[in-house]
Design a protein that fits this description.
The chain is mostly helical. The chain has a domain of 119 residues. The protein has 18 helices and six strands. Strands 1-2 form a two-stranded antiparallel sheet. Strands 3-5 form a two-stranded antiparallel sheet. The protein has a two-stranded antiparallel ribbon with strand order 4-6.
Length: 517
């Protein structure tokens, strides 16, 4: 006996169900778009609040502000770094006559970061500590937004990107280096900006390279791509990083190599016969021109003040200003290579993962009353220890994932490899100079890539959609507890990151290792 054929719902009912499903999909899409705007906005505002509140404290030059603030004002008034006389630091605080002469001073860092500091000083005046630091604070807050955008681009996940940005927003090292007029904060901003542009270029070009028939029918070599505006933008951003500190060159080289390797792998996936040679010798020179030439142009533009004036250091060493600039750079290179002067807060790069010697950038000599007799006010570059050590562990795990993928010939996504590229560019070069005087706060450029890698690992801990309900619930609870602990630790350390006067015994509770004092 034949089974009865089920009757379809009447057309009106089918249309109603279709409309309900469509409305539900559209509503989910609108909610996702709204969340994609609200989440980064909230985290960036939080970062700005933590970095801007009481920014003018301390009202004195802290640590290496004694160099960069004075150089910034000199750039603004002379166009180049002049020579400062005695008691210049006190003159900045009391607004006495600033002892600045027009004789060019030998300065070992490019001028862009100091020009940015000078913009705030031009508005607030040379004695305004908020003016000294406002540009760095704004760029530090914007770096949190960049971390969100980079993580979102890597993973397509709003939740993961929000977690990564939140971790950077509440991290102590990032907060401190955003509240002090040093060069490392602007350097970090431009490195992240360049990283974002590299990813945008990757998303635009890789589909074309994987389908060479769209641009070129040549199955041996594949296409040569010149129309790459995001790669040019990356060159400008990374050139700006180099114009803040020369260590930006390492990132320029690392991300340039990343571009070549990813393009080579895309050609292999497309079946291009000579994919290694095409990436290295055909597209490689083109990519070099598109990336490095804008970087070099940006770097030279940052020296405009020195080039168009006559009083800068070594400006008269040759009638040709570009040759004179080359002579100046040779002197700077000799200084950096031979820099081995001892410092009580020096920390070689091998110590950085262990967090053995953070830098005290300011210790209050006359802190405000705190309710007891013995008080102290300190600004220390201690990161949030939970974020730091968990980030280092996450980086080690990502290295394991990458190596295992290569061994098993399994694809490893950019969410695993890209943070490691950023960490390699910002950490490995410093290992080559064990005798050089360097400091733990240089790791502020590493922290964005650490938190992105940590967020990737936290997503794995939280579980996947195909996991069991129990597995997802336990994983999500673990991540929530971890983030709660991170926030509590940041609240506990915030006085030590912002120079708030606290009882001496309370301050001692923050010194978890002997080298943290």
């Amino acid at each position: 006996m034949t089974a009865p054929v089920p009757l379809l719902p009447p057309p009106e009912q089918r249309l109603t169900r279709y409309g309900q499903l469509r409305d539900r999909i559209l509503l989910d899409a609108r909610r996702r778009r709204m969340l994609g705007w609200v989440a980064p906005l909230v985290v960036t505002v939080l970062a700005a609040v933590l970095r801007l509140i009481n920014l003018g404290h301390p009202h004195q030059l802290a640590f290496d502000e004694t160099y960069y603030v004075k150089d910034a004002w000199s750039l603004w008034t002379l166009g180049y770094e002049g020579t400062w006389g005695e008691k210049a630091n006190e003159a900045f605080i009391t607004l006495q006559k600033l002892p600045l002469s027009e004789s060019g001073a030998f300065i070992v860092h490019p001028p862009l970061g100091k020009w940015l500091i000078a913009l705030g000083m031009a508005v607030g005046g040379p004695d305004n500590t908020v003016g000294w630091r406002i540009a760095v604070a704004v760029l530090g807050s914007a770096t949190v937004l960049l971390v969100y955008l980079v993580a979102r681009r890597l993973t397509r996940s709003i939740a993961l990107a929000t977690v990564a940005a939140l971790l950077l927003a509440v991290d102590g090292l990032s907060i401190v280096m955003s509240r002090i007029a040093l060069l490392d904060g602007p350097l970090t901003f431009f490195l992240l900006l360049g990283a974002l542009f590299i990813l945008l270029d990757r998303d635009r070009t890789i589909p074309v390279l994987e389908r060479p028939d769209l641009e070129s029918p040549d199955p041996m070599w594949g296409p040569v791509l010149w129309r790459r505006p995001w790669l040019i933008a990356a060159g400008v951003a990374l050139g700006a990083a180099c114009a803040v500190k020369w260590s930006g060159l390492y990132a320029l080289a690392a991300f340039g190599l990343y571009v070549v390797v990813t393009e080579a792998l895309a050609r292999r996936r497309a079946g291009i016969v000579l994919w290694p040679s095409a990436a290295a010798f055909l597209q490689g020179p083109v990519s070099f021109v598109l990336l490095v030439v804008p970087a070099l142009a940006t770097y030279l533009v940052s020296w405009t003040g020195w080039l168009v004036t006559a009083g800068g250091y070594a400006r008269d060493s040759d009638p040709n200003p570009l040759v004179a600039l080359w002579n100046y750079h040779q002197a700077i290179l000799n200084f950096h290579v031979g820099l081995s002067k001892g410092h009580p807060y020096a920390s070689p790069a091998w110590e950085w993962p262990l967090l053995l010697r953070p830098t005290a950038v300011w210790v209050g000599t006359d802190p405000a009353p705190c309710g007891v007799d013995h008080c102290i006010a300190v600004i220390s570059t201690i990161p949030n220890p939970i974020i730091w050590y968990a980030g280092v562990a996450a980086a080690v795990y990502l290295i394991y994932r990458m190596v295992r993928g290569w061994i098993e010939r399994q694809p490893v996504g950019p969410a695993v490899t890209f943070p490691l590229v950023g960490l390699a560019a910002t950490y490995i070069p410093w290992l080559m100079f064990p005798e050089r005087t360097i400091f733990q706060f240089y790791t502020v450029t590493m922290v964005p890539f650490l938190v992105i890698g940590l967020a990737v690992v936290l997503r794995q801990i939280a579980g996947r959609r195909e996991d069991t309900l129990h597995r997802r619930q336990s994983g999500e609870r673990t991540v929530i507890v971890f983030l709660a602990v991170v926030l509590l630790i940041s609240a506990f350390f915030y006085p030590v990151w912002t120079g708030i006067s606290v009882p001496y015994d309370f301050w001692r509770l923050h010194n978890w290792l002997p080298g943290w004092i």
